[in-house]
């Protein structure tokens, strides 16, 4: 990495630092709050504990990915327009921004993963049954990149900040809402009459649905199901596609403005 590019990355990291801290704090809070209940519930009621963990992996615990990914992209490319400034849309500027977001996102997920592992060790005394956590947080990292790509794509589609945020935020909000509906199809909600089996179909229209808790939780057991690995890899592929689309739209917009 050249010194000039490294300097640009450091500058971008400084701009998105507050968003990364906010995402870390919220992520750690939700991790401790929900998983404290989940770990305790699994010992008493496996179904309830599994539902709590599923809600964390597919919805509540993933909220910080929307904040970190979209928030960082907005700070770098969308919000400057609201302040009467111009974002750095040059190739080097976009590359340094993406590098900064990747570094910040990785740091956020590593911190939350460390907190999660520490809590499991404190409550259980070992990581038995939780060998899947690194894979889950790799998925969260890829979700950070996906939402950052949505922010870049929104910026590429429109010069108007509110429209750009509306496009990216609308897709992110849809994904979160659909994951909430999909959770209503879990066995515990169906059993108490608060959900229905058909609600699981909403997993097909949200990227959070690729976080398959049943497959994840089987890792480390004698009946391990590794389908979660390709599903996690698919999140990365979708993130790459969205980032590439945003890059293309931005280049096309710049070309038409010449």
Descriptive notes:
By secondary structure, this protein is mainly α. The protein has nine helices and no strands. The chain has helices at 3-44, 46-58, 63-82, 91-124, 133-157, 161-183, 187-191, 213-218, 227-257. Helix 3 (63-82) runs antiparallel to helix 4 (91-124), helix 3 runs parallel beside helix 5 and helix 5 runs antiparallel to helix 6. It is globular and about 60 Å long. The two termini are 30 Å apart.
What is the structure about, briefly put?
The chain has 258 residues and is mainly α.
Morphology? globular
Q: Are there runs of 5+ residues with pLDDT below 50, and where?
A: none
The chain-level structural class is: mainly alpha
The helix/strand series, from N terminus to C terminus, equals HHHHHHHHH
Q: Which assembly state applies to the chains in this document?
A: single chain
C-alpha Rg (nearest Å): 19 Å
- Measured between the Cα atoms of the first and last residue, the distance is 30 Å
- Strand fraction equals under 5%
Helix run count: 9
Share of helical residues: over 70%
Q: Could you give the count of β-strands?
A: 0
> Mean pLDDT score, rounded?
85
How many strands, which pairing sense, and closed or not: the largest β-sheet?
none
């Amino acid at each position: 990495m050249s010194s000039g590019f490294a300097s640009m990355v450091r500058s971008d990291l400084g701009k998105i630092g507050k968003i990364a801290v906010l995402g870390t704090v919220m992520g750690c809070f939700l991790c401790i709050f929900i998983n404290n209940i989940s770990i305790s519930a699994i010992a008493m009621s496996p179904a309830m504990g599994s539902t709590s963990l599923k809600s964390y992996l597919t919805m509540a615990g993933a909220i910080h990915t929307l904040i970190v990914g979209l928030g960082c992209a907005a700070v770098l490319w969308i919000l400057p327009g609201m302040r009467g400034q111009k974002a750095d849309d040059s190739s080097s500027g976009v590359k340094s921004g993406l590098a900064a977001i990747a570094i910040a996102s990785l740091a956020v997920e590593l911190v939350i993963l460390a907190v999660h592992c520490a809590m499991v060790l404190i409550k259980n005394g070992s990581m038995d049954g939780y060998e899947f956590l690194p894979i889950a947080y790799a998925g969260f990292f890829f979700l950070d990149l996906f939402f950052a790509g949505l922010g870049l794509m929104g910026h590429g589609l429109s010069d108007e900040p509110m429209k750009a945020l509306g496009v990216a935020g609308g897709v992110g909000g849809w994904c979160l809402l659909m994951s909430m509906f999909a959770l209503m199809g879990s066995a515990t909600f169906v059993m108490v009459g608060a959900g229905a089996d058909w609600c699981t179909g909403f997993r097909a229209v949200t990227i959070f649905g690729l976080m398959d808790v049943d497959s994840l939780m089987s890792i480390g057991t004698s009946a391990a199901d590794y389908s979660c690995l390709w599903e996690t890899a698919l999140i990365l592929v979708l993130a790459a596609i969205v980032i590439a689309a945003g890059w293309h739209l931005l280049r096309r917009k710049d070309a038409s403005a010449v």
